[in-house]
Amino acid sequence: MEYTNSQAREAIAEHIHSARDRMILEKRLIDGLTYERIAEDMDMSVRQIKNIIYKNEDILFQKLH
Predict the structure, then answer these.
(1) Which residues contact 49 (CB under 8 A, 6 or more apart)?
(2) Cβ of 17: how many Cβ atoms within 10 Å?
(3) Which domains does the chain have, with CATH numbers?
(4) Angle at the Cα of 20 (from 35 to 58), degrees rounded to 5?
(5) Nearest-CA neighbor of 59 among 23, 20, 16?
(6) Per residue of the chain (65 residues), what is the pLDDT tens digit?
(7) What is the pLDDT of residue 65?
(8) Are 38 and 27 in contact (CB under 8 A)?
(9) What's the CA gap between 6 and 12, in Å, rounded?
(10) Can you give the pLDDT at residue 43?
């Protein structure tokens, strides 16, 4: 199923409780930034960013399906 950016933002806001994780997930899923770019922006490692995204995508996708 395709979601608009506003629907995706709403779902992220509703189901992801950490402000940091919401920001990271939005940068990846809505803004389309690479893991490397997000890691640079957040001053974190690429591995940390991937772990945060994978964990929160699982949460989000379980709630949406």
Answers:
(1) 24, 35, 38, 39, 42
(2) 10
(3) 5-64 (1.10.10.10)
(4) 65
(5) 16
(6) 688 999 999 999 999 999 999 999 999 999 999 999 999 999 999 999 999 999 999 999 898 87
(7) 75
(8) yes
(9) 10
(10) 98
